[in-house]
C-alpha cells in the first residue's frame, strides 16, 4: 500500500511539473508574440516570369486596384493545385467577359513547399500573366494562417476571398458571400444619415464566412458517414458518387472543437474552420494587421477580432466536398489546443494589444 501511495505522489508531482511547464511555455510564447513582427515580415517580391522584371508590391493600406482578390495558401499541393486553379480561373475569366467592371487577381502563397508547388504556381503566372496571377514565396513553412495573412496584406482587391488549394468548396459559391456583403454594405451606407457618397464597398468592414454546419449535422446524424457527389481534379477520373466513413479524429475535432471555440471566442459562429471566407478591404486591414496565430486556429482569432472590432459576420452555407489528401490528422489536436491557449492568455492578460 505504501508503495502504491509513493507512486501516486510521484505521478502527482510529475503532473504538476508538466502542467506548470506547459503553462509557462504558453505564457512565454504569448509574450514573444505581443508584437506582430513575430510573423514572417520579409517584403514579398512579385516577379513576372515572362519578362523577369519585378512588379511593384501592393499593401493592404493602398487603394484597391481590383474588384476581388482570391488568396490561396499552398503547402505541398503540386497535385491538387492545378485542378483547383483551372476551375477558379475559368470561372473568373467567364465572369470578367460577362461583367465588364469585374476585375480579379489570384494570389498563391507557397508556404515553404518541398514539392513542385512553386513550379505549378509559376506555370499559371506565365499562362494568365502577372497582372492576374501572382505568387508569394514564404521560403519555409510558417503555417496556413501566416500564408493567408501574407496574401491578404499584399492583395489589391476591394473584396478578398481566402480559399483552400484543394478546391473543396466550389469557387462560384463566392457569389453567395459577395451578395450578402453587398447587401450589408448597402444597409450600412443607407442607415447613415451623413454618409460620404464617395465611400465604396471596400470601405465598410464586413466579413462573410462560408459554413459547412449543415453538412456536419448530416454527418453526425449518419454516424459519421458522408455522401460525396462531385468530380476529381485528377485527369481521366469520371464524376464520382460514393459513401465513406469519415475518419474518427475528424469527427472528434468537429464535436470537441466547437466547445473550445465557444470558450475562447464566444458564441455566434457554427463553423469557424471552413477555409472559404470573404472580407472587405477595410475588414482585412483591421484583422490581418493584428492576427498572431500562424496555423490551424487563426480562424478562431479572426472571429475574436471581428467581435472586438464589431465587424459584422455573416455565416453562409456553401457546397463542400472532402478531398483526399487533407493535412488534418491526430497531431492537429494538440496544435489546435496550443494555439487556443496562446490566444486566450495573450488577449485576456492584455499582452496582445490590438492596433486600431
TrEMBL record:
The alphabetized UniProt keywords are:
Endoplasmic reticulum, Glycosyltransferase, Membrane, Signal-anchor, Transferase, Transmembrane, Transmembrane helix
- What topology does the record note for this protein and the membrane? Single-pass membrane protein
Tell me the GO molecular function terms.
Answer: dolichyl-phosphate beta-glucosyltransferase activity
Q: Which pathway does it serve?
A: Protein modification; protein glycosylation
- Kindly indicate whether the keyword Membrane belongs to this entry: yes
- GO CC annotations, alphabetized: endoplasmic reticulum membrane
Keyword Glycosyltransferase belongs to the record: yes
What is catalyzed by this enzyme?
a di-trans,poly-cis-dolichyl phosphate + UDP-alpha-D-glucose = a di-trans,poly-cis-dolichyl beta-D-glucosyl phosphate + UDP
Query: Any idea what this protein is called?
Result: dolichyl-phosphate beta-glucosyltransferase
User: What is the protein's species of origin?
Assistant: Rhododendron griersonianum
What are the leading ranks of the lineage? Eukaryota, Viridiplantae, Streptophyta, Embryophyta, Tracheophyta
